[in-house]
Write a structure and sequence with these properties.
The chain is built from four helices and no strands. By secondary structure, it is mainly alpha-helical.
């Protein structure tokens, strides 16, 4: 017969098997005395969860997948180029085009965050921040 009760005995310490990693410390966040641990406040719940963002992004990702990859790259490059060259009375239009590029890059950064390395996260975040900064300078008429 199957022996289910001791099937996780051969796993390394801290691993529970298919149900996920073991929680450190006492079970369910309670202190040894049975009271809730008052030293650790619960983390604030994010307004938009990652899964919700991924679900909402899926139709747009599927629509983008229908286009050739080079077309999306060219469109973003054109938005960046025309955003950078707009000066004078049309600088606000350049700022909007650059915000479109920053939004697209930021959206891709958020979606790829769990699978990219920390150094890639830093570099991509700097690029998004730089494009946003240039867009702000465009809106102010200083670039």
């Amino acid at each position: 017969m199957a022996k289910d009760s001791g099937s996780n005995n051969n796993l390394p310490r801290g691993v529970r098997g298919p149900s996920g990693p073991a929680t450190p410390g006492p079970a369910s966040g309670r202190a040894a005395s049975g009271r809730a641990d008052s030293r650790r406040p619960s983390a604030p719940r994010p307004v938009v969860s990652r899964r919700k963002l991924e679900r909402r992004s899926l139709p747009l990702l599927l629509a983008l997948q229908r286009f050739p990859r080079w077309l999306i790259v060219i469109l973003m490059a054109l938005c960046l180029f025309f955003g950078l060259i707009q000066t004078g009375g049309l600088a606000w239009l350049g700022g909007i085009l650059m915000l479109v590029v920053a939004s697209f890059l930021g959206w891709l950064l958020i979606l790829s965050w769990p699978v990219i390395t920390p150094s890639s996260r830093v570099i991509r975040s700097i690029v998004v921040a730089a494009v946003v900064g240039l867009a702000i300078l465009k809106f102010l008429g200083r670039f």
